[in-house]
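Whiteboard transcription, Tuesday session. T.W. wrote the C-alpha cells on the left side:
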C-alpha cells in the first residue's frame, strides 16, 4: 500500500504535525519541571518548533484557500 499524498489532505496532515508539536512541547515542559538536562529540554523545544513550522506550512495555504472560496460570503 503506497503512502498517501499529503497534498491531497493538507488539513489532516497539518493537524497531525500540530499535535506532534504539542506533544514535544509538553515533554519539554515536563523536562523543565523535573530538572532534566538542559540540552535535552532545548532539543525538545527545537523539535516542537520545527513541527509547528511544518504544520503552519500546510495549514496556512489551506486556510487561505478556504476563505477565498466563492459562495461563502456573509449576508
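and on the right, the sequence the group agreed on:
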Amino acid at each position: 500500500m503506497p503512502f498517501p499524498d499529503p497534498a491531497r489532505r493538507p488539513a489532516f496532515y497539518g493537524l497531525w504535525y500540530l499535535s506532534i508539536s504539542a506533544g514535544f512541547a509538553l515533554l519539554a515542559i515536563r523536562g523543565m519541571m523535573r530538572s532534566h538536562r538542559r540540552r535535552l529540554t532545548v532539543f525538545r523545544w527545537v523539535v516542537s518548533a520545527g513541527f509547528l513550522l511544518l504544520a503552519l506550512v500546510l495549514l496556512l495555504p489551506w486556510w487561505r484557500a478556504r476563505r477565498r472560496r466563492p459562495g461563502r460570503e456573509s449576508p
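Someone added at the bottom: Residues 19-66 form one domain.
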